[in-house]
Amino acid sequence: MAKRYLLVKVVSKFKLPPERFEVALTESVRRCFGEFGLARIGPRVIRFDAARSEAVVACNKEGVEDLQAAIGLVPDQAEGTVTAITTRVSGTLKGLRKQRF
Amino acid sequence: MAIYTDLHVLPRVGDDESSRRMADLLRLSGYSAIGLTLPAGLMRDRVGPLRQLFEERGIETFLRLDIAPPSRQELLRLLRRYRTAFDVVAVKCVSPAAALVACRDRRVDVVFFDTFRRNIWFNYTYADLLHGALEFNIVSDLLNATTSDIYLRLAKEAAIARNSGTKIVLSSGATKPEVVRAPMQLSALGQAVGLSKSQVLRGVADIPRSIVRDNTERRSSSYIEEGVRVVVPKAR
């Protein structure tokens, strides 16, 4: 199945561990599109750079727009607000790296 | 390449740190222009530094005024008073009588409905009359949604807008940096509530751009009326 890779800037006033971001993202997708939507979109955090506050998220090609919507609605955490902004979308990780630098 | 405009940004006046973070995030998200929404009575010496703060980061700013008139008379009075002073005039529809006039009036660029107000909503009557564009403050509405009623309401309004071919503007309605989202996220949220792909893409790029472009031209000294402007002959 074709994939899409999204570069996401994660802005928060506290240090967000990668696993917490993945849980929050999955929860957001589930809340917006349900279990079937979650399966169709298939979001997966494949890289999380805490120093740069960036994450690379993979998903199925047909779910890329729904994932962008869900990223925009990532719920607040107990410690404070988390803002996730999609900055790039690419069909390959190499392409994402090229766009990034 | 598309030029993205977030037509509804409401920075906190007096909180420079928040405005600076907001400007950084807007730039990072890929916006080239914003509609800076400020109170009508704000002194000019406070508007300048705020605009500069955004423009230093390469974001063009257009002054926008939000009015929420309770009656038709009040709407007409506010339009007479403020239309020429602002690049964009938006009306928050809080009463059916004022909403009807706001939809019909050529001086109103954008109308929007408060999703938390249950006595008024966008319907086919307003859609038929609407001269300007309908705005969805989609991020702030959905982030503040506590029940599924808000989703349902947005979906109904989106269906009416899609069926009527209404001009749509998608904005964040950001009052703080945490509510800023990228244009592609706005369009994805628009599609999620049921707007068509072409509508959402035009709603973050072409339509807001054309509103500010037309109004800037209208406010220029050479403008006489629609289709008529002063052309200065070249000096020989």
Radius of gyration of chain A: 13 Å
Count of DSSP strands of chain A:
4
Characterize the largest beta sheet of chain A: strand count, sense, and whether it forms a barrel.
4 strands, antiparallel
Helix fraction of chain A?
40-55%
SSE topology string of chain B: EHEHEHEHEHEHHEHHHEE
**In terms of structural class, how would the helical and strand content of chain B be classed?**
alpha/beta
SS summary, helix count of chain A: 3
Structural class of chain A: alpha+beta
State which percent range the strand residues of chain A make up: 25-35%
Any idea what the radius of gyration of chain B is? Answer: 18 Å
Report on the architecture of this protein.
The complex is a heterodimer of chains A (101) and B (236). Chain A is an alpha+beta fold and 101 residues long. Chain A contains three helices and four strands, in the order βαββαβα. Chain A has helices at 18-41, 64-72, 93-100, and strands at 3-12, 44-49, 54-60, 82-90. In chain A, β2 (44-49) and β3 (54-60) form a beta hairpin. The longest helix of chain A has 24 residues, at 18-41. The N and C termini of chain A lie far apart (27 Å). The model of chain A has no long low-confidence stretch (mean pLDDT 89). Chain B has a single domain (4-229), classed as Alpha-Beta Barrel (TIM Barrel), CATH 3.20.20.140. Chain B is 45% helix and 19% strand. In chain B, α3 crosses α4 (96-104) and α8 runs antiparallel to α9. Chain B has helices at residues 16-29, 44-55, 72-82, 96-104, 124-129, 138-143, 148-164, 183-192, 197-204, 206-219; strands at residues 4-9, 31-37, 60-67, 88-93, 110-113, 133-137, 168-171, 223-225, 228-229. The mean pLDDT of chain B is 91. Chain B has a seven-stranded parallel β-sheet, with helices on both faces. A two-stranded antiparallel ribbon of chain B has the order 8-9. By secondary structure, chain B is of the alpha/beta class. The A-B interface holds A 9, 11, 32, 65-69, 71-73, 81, 83, 85-87, 89 and B 25, 28-30, 139, 142-143, 177-182, 184-189, 191-192.
